[in-house]
Amino acid sequence: EAEREIEFFFPQEQTLAVIKPDALEEHREEILEQIRNSGFTISCMKEAVLSREMAEEFYKEHREKAFFSQLVEFMCCGPCMLMALTKENAVEEWRAMMGPTDPAVARETAPESLRARFATDILQNSVHGSSNLQHASEKIDFLFGDIVSDGDLSSHRDAADTLL
Ligand code: UDP
């Protein structure tokens, strides 16, 4: 009797990932290698120092939070690596690789995660990832709008992979 296989398919998704200034200098290669080894395609990438205005816009959902000004300051304090990552279930998978916001929690609950390994504290926590598809497409448009139109990132894929 033929064995029946059940397969689960997740749609291809794109998420926005950032290596934050605290991690870029020391951990860039390790983080990029883990991204590639986990089956993500880096569809777009660029290194940039965000202006204050860009950082404020990027984190506008947190405008009312007590930590907002510190967060903006931190995000502008040095270069970030901005990336659009493509994979099945990319939003959730990249969030899982990052681990919880607070590295103290990450070390308890997800010791293999990037934040458990590389983050300093709840502010300087080494990586960012969109929390849903809506944010992902909005932030990708915002950060890569100058080189991408109509959400079509495919033509930039080879260029991005070459950079690695
Ligand atoms: N953050 C902070 N203090 C907090 C919570 C968050 O400084 O109490 C910073 C931290 O850098 C975090 C970012 O604000 O990554 C955005 O917060 P969010 O709650 O969206 O966490 P994330 O989605 O990055 O895990």
TrEMBL record:
UniProt-annotated binding residues for ATP: 20, 67, 95, 101, 115, 125
Domain of life: Eukaryota
Entry annotation: catalytic residues: 128 (pros-phosphohistidine intermediate)
Family assignment from sequence similarity: Belongs to the NDK family.
Name of this protein: Thioredoxin domain-containing protein
Source organism per UniProt: Albula goreensis
Part of the whole protein covered: 438 to 601 of 763
